[in-house]
Amino acid sequence: MRxxxxxxxxxxxxxxxxxxxxxxxxxxLDQRDVPAGAREPLVVAHPGGRRATVEVAVAGPGDPExxxxxxxxxGAPPDLVLFATKQFDLPxxxxxxxxxxxxxxxxxQNGIGAEEAVLAARPGAGLVAASLTAAVRLHHPGHGxxxxxxxxxxxxRGGLALAPAAGTVEPVLDELAxxxxxxxxxxxxxxxxRAMKWSKLLGNLAGNATxxxxxxxxxxxxxxxxxxxxxxxxxxxxxxxxxALGLRPVALPGADVRLLVLAAHLPGRLARFLMSRVxxxxxxxxxxxLRLHLRHAGxxxxxxxxxxxxxxxxxRAGVPAPVNGRLAALVDEAAADPxxxxxxxxxxGRLVEAIWEAGEKPPGP
Length: 365
Known about the structure:
This protein has helices at 10-21, 90-96, 114-121, 170-182, 193-205, 209-214, 218-223, 225-244, 257-264, 268-283, 289-297, 307-317, 322-336, 338-344, 348-356, and strands at residues 2-6, 25-29, 38-45, 51-59, 80-83, 105-107, 127-132, 136-139, 151-154, 160-166, 187-189, 251-252, 255-256. It is built from 15 helices and 13 strands.
């Protein structure tokens, strides 16, 4: 298979590197200007110190048809397009890949909405939905910034879940699953793409928006009963929305979110302790994505596709989800206005007051 990866960040580099390690022909569309027909090394670091160096094709944003596939002429279409961008960058990625409208696609974005966007833009193509639960990082040793010095690390926990989302994609799923397993990535096949993505969403929500707004670690958030009630409410709203949609949480590799839901229903101190341990281990020491974004990136966030997606789906289903709606709005406000962000940083009382402005009665002491 010829795999085109759109998005050369940590997730795209890691998944593309694994596929190349398994022998598939992998190419990346990058933001850099690179010579036509360029091929570069990519290093994938596995747990235990094992490293695999693979060679991948690279093309700049203005010349995607100059990819140097192995044994195929320039301009040959990919057999699969792997979209590994952030949700807010997906429209631009879809525009670039529009020249191959019939190639099956694979989505690996966090949150809800990527599959719907891809299907709307590529209605005739098959679609594989994926959820990555392994924590990965992208490193650029030395001073290079090209793929040749990129190293994607993953921890022992976690893996990859794949599910068919549209079209006849079973042969593609078979080859992808076999390739990822060959590279050493724990990979499971699931049958319900929506249940898989909503289950991953449960894990993405925990200790994310609250930590971003306060610029605090999840352990600090869960130690505060007022903040933990916010965490508990957002999960309860999400589970209720899933139930209204006919979905149930499912176990993902190394991340059985059903345990997270169960822990949220335990008595306060025990629930806070267990959820803090579960999320700390699942994140592998990585900073929650929204906190990282508010601290360094600025601009649009993925809150719309995380808490915002819950609020939108809940409204359509007639389920109240004020806490999710308020968290999504506050994160976007903080991203757009540094003074608004500074208002909340390190001040949990202000966040608690802002959340209960959503119309719900705040919890008792």
